[in-house]
Amino acid sequence: MLDDRKLAVLRAIVEDYVSTNEPVGSKALAERHNLKVSPATVRNDMAALEEEGYITQPHTSAGRVPTDKGYRLFVDRLSQVKPLSAAERRAIETFLAGAVDLDDVVMRTVRLLAQLTRQVAVVQYPTLTRSTVRHVELVPLSERRVMLVLITNTGRVEQRVIELPEVVEDHRIAHLRAVLNSCLDGCGLSTVPELIADLPERLPAEDRPAVATILSVLLETLVERHDEKIVFAGAANLAGADFATGLRDVLEALEEHVVLMRLLGETSSDTPSALTVRIGSENPYLRGTSVVATGYGSGDNQLARLGVLGPTRMDYPVTMGAVRAVARYVSQILAAS
Amino acid sequence: MLDDRKLAVLRAIVEDYVSTNEPVGSKALAERHNLKVSPATVRNDMAALEEEGYITQPHTSAGRVPTDKGYRLFVDRLSQVKPLSAAERRAIETFLAGAVDLDDVVMRTVRLLAQLTRQVAVVQYPTLTRSTVRHVELVPLSERRVMLVLITNTGRVEQRVIELPEVVEDHRIAHLRAVLNSCLDGCGLSTVPELIADLPERLPAEDRPAVATILSVLLETLVERHDEKIVFAGAANLAGADFATGLRDVLEALEEHVVLMRLLGETSSDTPSALTVRIGSENPYLRGTSVVATGYGSGDNQLARLGVLGPTRMDYPVTMGAVRAVARYVSQILAAS
DNA sequence: CTCTAGCACTCTGTGTTCCCGAGTGCCAAG
DNA sequence: CTTGGCACTCGGGAACACAGAGTGCTAGAG
User: Fold this and answer.
1) Looking at A174-253, which runs of residues are DSSP E strands?
2) How many angstroms separate the Cα of A40 from the Cα of each of A4, A17, A30, B94?
3) Which nucleotides of strand C lie under 7 Å from a protein CB?
4) Which pTM was predicted?
5) What confidence tens digit (pLDDT) does each residue in A1-53 have?
6) Is the CB of residue A72 less than 8 Å from the CB of residue A290?
7) Interface touch B246/A252, C-beta < 8 Å
């Protein structure tokens, strides 16, 4: 059905269209990609490719443009991920190494990725689920208010101000803090709920209301926000591109964390570090865009996802290379800290 | 030079142009704003206004459009800040009251402001400069690494991982923490440098290298990042508007914290809660946009600034009302926590 | 059976022309 | 100072023609 030459034609169409942003015709194709055949032959192949739905023409007597299905075939079978240059890799390394804390790592990562790909970069904060507790801090703010600070081994810090149901003396708070830390230090976040289940019973009865309040906030902190935080950068790169769905929708989606999460997708459990490419209509919401994403985190300890979002007409090999490389480097950085 | 009627004409031109986005002609003006005079008279006034540089025409035989100078006069003398409706105020209050921590307050504020004004909202994180130290925490992470966490009375948490020059036992760290807290608790951040100046001398000699490292990081935390953090929302609202400078430049500026800070401007020391309006070319960078901003924070304790950014053709009275109201509410919320 | 060359056909995009109408500036009269 | 009248200007849309790119088809060559 699709012999090698037809595939070569498809590849050439995708490459030319991506670089020129203009429908590509048979003549230009035959010339620029030394295919050793005449334009007429190319035309026959193009007719076949169009028949199968891999390409389409905007109007009669214009060149051909890849369809989502065409890009899909290109990504799956006709292209190879393009590695970054040595210079680029060095630049990444030094830029990421300069980060001072987790916020900074994430910020630098997302900016770097946006700059490398000239697309919109999206980075999900490392999820808490697989993290462990490094420290729990209770800071008395006033008679009836304390601040809860939870520090994880990934360097993430969660904080909440808690209103207590009654006045609790500072030394009681200090005691609770000591108990909490001895109990939770180094434990996985997912095990926290069971670990603190019987805690109220092990403490003086008069503290129970306060303890219950504090623990419930702690639990909230764990479950509610563990993967909601997500940032993007490079919105300016959207200015040039044109989207099927309209620029406004894309910008709106970028500010909706829920939508953004969905677009990045789930890390598949069997091959967590694989690149995910969703093209055009394969995406939930935002049909007119493509998303290249991957999980990051060292080895079996996948932390979260990152990727880029752009028009379907994007340079997939280069973009995939950049996403993969950045994911690897940020994984290293996080593993080291 | 500019009698009352000419001012009324200018006001009418601004209002019409803002609402229709089309150059406004003398005839339509005379009809819609019962000015009690004929189009010809209006034309004479318009000629005078143009002579003075308050309005201009895109091309001969088109209506008039306000210049930056025209908007400036309108804002200064011809308009009143428009208060929000009761329903809007209630909505703000309940929405902001639901915030759980400082990040959440800022996030909610910026989104709210974007939604109210249908412009891009910008909020600077509460600056540390006038905050006081609530708590300093040192958490040993490993033999040679500790995490420094600085908690301020505004609920802000700064964190740094510190590599120590040598192994320091945990109880020494604990001691240093106690000393630091007793020394700094409740003190203004700006006084911290002098307060810790002689600290190394008051501690055992063998700890000095480690202490010096920790203190230098603490100082860095204070000075470096105290006002860099700034967020925006509502970029999607830019999609419709057209900017003199091009959409791309605006989006780029939004991601450059330094530029954003400059655009928000300084809080004037004498009237900190006054609304600042910068119109078009009055702005540093981004000449094609207008910025409406104000400081927030309770009373004499100004924390930082917030505002919105949009095309020069914006509804200033409404925008100013929204910015002022949101600043007041967020000040309340922060003062209460 | 596949490839190639030639040819007629169909579009889009561009440039030209024309004309309408909105809006202006100026002038003279109220 | 205001107003009505009037000639003028210019942008934008409609109508039109045209060149060029690209196609599909057919017939012939390998």
Assistant:
1) 230-233
2) 17, 20, 9, 69
3) 3-6, 9-12, 21-27
4) 0.86
5) 678 889 999 999 999 999 999 999 998 888 888 778 888 999 999 999 999 99
6) no
7) no
